[in-house]
């Protein structure tokens, strides 16, 4: 049975983060207020496994249901979210997205702690190549720039926010001035995220054929 077209919010967390992160909790609370279903897969996997997990959540949905599904990706989760936006036509909001994960992964190789938990992830040298392969197969950019809302912190200490600003220059933006990579004022941005979703879900997905 194909799931019906109810509003859904899917949160894709960042590198070494978890579904229970502060943004995940804030978004879950917002989704409840919006009467939307909420899910947040654990992406502490290899790049290909994480990407496949995201796809498994979206591929069973009808075209209409995908338009009623808001993806919210933070940092590395933004990479997966933008690829999924392109593949499945879902409206997508990304928070300080990491668009070139192959650049930082080599410095993270080894056993790493997942923030806020007692769990670990083994970051392997081959992860960088997996990210490059994924990006070559399908870029981290929606077919229609209007399908991505880009939230950027102008004092991001982890990523240069100008990279995403330039790469997604035709997409709408929300700038959180002097905010950090975690985006402390994320909750204040949620009304803009909600408004974006309500506008985009009624617009048919872009068809490049």
UniProtKB/TrEMBL annotation:
A Pfam family it matches: UPF0227
Coiled coil: none
Protein name: AB hydrolase-1 domain-containing protein
Protein species of origin: Sutterella wadsworthensis HGA0223
């Amino acid at each position: 049975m194909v799931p019906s077209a109810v509003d859904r919010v899917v949160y894709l967390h960042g590198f070494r983060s978890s579904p229970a992160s502060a943004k995940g909790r804030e978004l879950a609370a917002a989704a409840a207020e919006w009467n939307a279903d909420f899910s947040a897969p654990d992406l502490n996997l290899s790049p290909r496994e994480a990407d496949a997990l995201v796809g498994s959540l979206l591929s069973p949905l009808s075209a209409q249901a995908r338009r009623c599904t808001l993806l919210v990706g933070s940092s590395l989760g933004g990479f997966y979210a933008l690829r999924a936006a392109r593949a499945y036509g879902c409206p997508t909001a990304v928070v300080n997205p990491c668009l070139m994960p192959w650049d930082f992964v080599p410095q993270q190789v080894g056993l790493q702690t997942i923030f806020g938990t007692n769990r670990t992830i083994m970051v392997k040298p081959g992860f960088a190549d997996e990210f490059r392969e994924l990006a070559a197969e399908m870029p981290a950019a929606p077919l229609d720039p209007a399908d991505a809302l880009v939230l950027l912190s102008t004092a991001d200490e982890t990523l240069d926010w100008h990279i995403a600003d330039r790469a997604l220059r035709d997409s709408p933006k929300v700038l959180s001035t002097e905010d950090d990579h975690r985006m402390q004022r994320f909750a204040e941005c949620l009304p803009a995220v909600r408004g974006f979703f309500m506008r985009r879900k009624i617009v048919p997905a872009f068809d490049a054929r």
